[in-house]
Design a protein that fits this description.
By secondary structure, the protein is an all-alpha fold. It is 71% helix and 1% strand. Strands 1-2 form a two-stranded antiparallel sheet. The chain is flat, with a radius of gyration of 30 Å.
Length: 362
C-alpha cells in the first residue's frame, strides 16, 4: 500500500464510521411528515385570519354605506306629522343621531362585537329579535330551493358532460344558460301573472304572495297551506339558480373525461355507468363543493328580490322594508348577517377542501 493511499483509506474509514455528511439545502429541511403535520394548521390559521379581516371590513362598510341613502329616518318616525324642531331633536338624541359620526361608528362597532345590532326605528324593537323572527321563514324558502337546485344541477350537469355534444347536452346547457340569465324578479312576476292571476280561461292555481292564507289552519292543513304558498317562489329560485351548478359540474367533469385513470378503469372491464359514478364524478365534484358552500351562505342571507316580489315574510323582505325608511340599524344588521353568512360558508369550504384534495393546504 502506498503512502498516498493511506490517508484516503483512513479518511474513507472515518467518514464511513461517522456516517454520511449532509450538505446543501437538504441538510436544514424538516422531515416530510413534520411539514405535513404543521402545514394544515397554518393553512387553517391563514383562512380564519382572512375571514376575520373580511368581517371587519364588512362591519365598517355596513356603517358608512347606508348613510349615503337619501331620506331622514327621524322624519319617518314622526309619521309625516308636523313636529317642532325640539321634538325632532328629542328623537335624534333618543337614537343617538345627534352624536358626531365617529362616535356613532365606535358605538356601533362596540355593540356589534357584543351581538347588539341596535334598535329598529320603524319597529321599535331590537334588530336581533326581528332577524330571529324572520330567519326561519327565509331558511324554509331558500333552504328548500337550495336542496332542489343543487341536486338538479349536479344530476343534469353529470349527464350532460357524459353525453357531451348530444341533443340532451345541448338542450340542458342552453336552457340553463337562458334561465340563469333571467332576472329573478322578472321571472317571479311572470309566474304570478300566468299561474296566480291566470290568463284568459286558465284560472290561477297558486297564491300571489305571502306565506299563509290566514284562515286559522293548524297542523297538517297549515303545512299544506304553507307548501301551497311556497311553490312559486321556490320554482323561481330553482329555475334561476340550478344552471350555475349544472355548468360548473359539467365543466369539471369534462376536464376529467380524458384522464388516464378513467381509461384504465374502462380497460378493466368496468361498466360505463360505474366508471362515471365511482371514479369520474367524485373527482369532478371538487369545484362544485366550493359552489355549494357559497350558495349555502346565500341561503342564510335569503334572496331579497324574490321575497319582495312574493311578499314572503323573510329577511329579504325585511331588508327591503328597512331600505325604504331608511331604518339604519335594521339594514346595517341585516347586511352584516348576509355578508357574515357568505364569509363563514366560504371559509368552511376552504377548510374542507383539503379533505377532498390533500394537495391543498400543504
Amino acid at each position: 500500500m502506498t503512502s498516498d493511499a493511506t490517508p484516503a483509506s483512513a479518511g474513507g474509514t472515518t467518514g464511513a464510521a461517522a456516517g454520511p455528511v449532509k450538505d446543501g439545502p437538504a441538510a436544514g429541511r424538516a422531515p416530510r411528515g413534520r411539514r405535513t403535520a404543521t402545514a394544515y394548521p397554518r393553512y387553517v390559521a391563514g383562512k380564519v385570519a382572512g375571514a376575520a379581516v373580511s368581517l371587519l371590513a364588512v362591519l365598517v362598510t355596513s356603517f358608512f354605506l347606508f348613510r349615503l341613502i337619501p331620506g331622514d329616518p327621524v322624519k319617518f318616525m314622526t309619521g309625516g306629522r308636523q313636529v317642532s324642531a325640539e321634538q325632532l331633536a328629542v328623537y335624534r338624541e333618543q337614537f343617538g343621531l345627534d352624536l358626531p359620526l365617529w362616535q356613532q361608528f365606535t358605538d356601533y362597532c362596540g355593540k356589534a362585537l357584543t351581538g347588539d345590532l341596535g334598535t329598529s326605528y320603524q319597529f321599535n324593537a331590537p334588530v336581533v329579535d326581528k332577524i330571529m323572527e324572520a330567519l326561519p321563514n327565509t331558511l324554509l324558502l331558500t333552504g328548500t330551493a337550495f336542496a332542489l337546485y343543487t341536486v338538479l344541477g349536479i344530476v343534469l350537469g353529470t349527464r350532460s358532460a357524459w353525453r357531451n355534444g348530444r341533443f340532451g347536452d345541448r338542450f340542458h346547457t342552453g336552457l340553463a344558460l337562458t334561465l340563469y340569465s333571467l332576472p329573478s324578479f322578472w321571472l317571479g312576476l311572470l309566474l304570478i301573472v300566468t299561474l296566480s292571476v291566470g290568463i284568459g280561461p286558465l284560472p290561477g292555481l297558486f297564491p300571489t304572495g305571502g306565506m299563509e292564507s290566514g284562515g286559522g289552519e293548524e297542523g297538517f292543513a297549515y303545512a299544506v297551506d304553507v307548501a301551497h304558498h311556497l311553490v312559486l317562489p321556490v320554482a323561481t329560485l330553482v329555475a334561476v339558480e340550478y344552471g350555475q351548478t349544472l355548468l360548473v359540474t359539467r365543466s369539471a367533469l369534462l376536464d376529467e373525461m380524458g384522464s388516464d385513470y378513467l381509461t384504465t378503469a374502462r380497460a378493466k372491464g368496468l361498466r360505463d355507468d360505474l366508471v362515471r359514478r365511482r371514479h369520474a364524478v367524485p373527482n369532478a365534484l371538487l369545484p362544485t363543493v366550493t359552489l355549494i358552500f357559497i350558495n349555502l351562505g346565500r341561503t342564510a342571507a335569503g334572496v331579497i328580490l324574490v321575497e319582495t316580489v312574493f311578499s314572503w315574510p323573510g329577511l329579504g323582505g325585511l331588508f327591503y322594508q328597512g331600505l325604504s325608511v331608511p331604518d339604519l340599524p335594521l339594514v346595517q344588521g341585516l347586511f352584516l348577517v348576509f355578508a357574515a353568512a357568505v364569509i363563514v360558508m366560504n371559509t368552511l369550504a376552504d377548510l374542507i377542501y383539503p379533505l377532498f384534495d390533500p394537495r391543498v393546504g400543504r
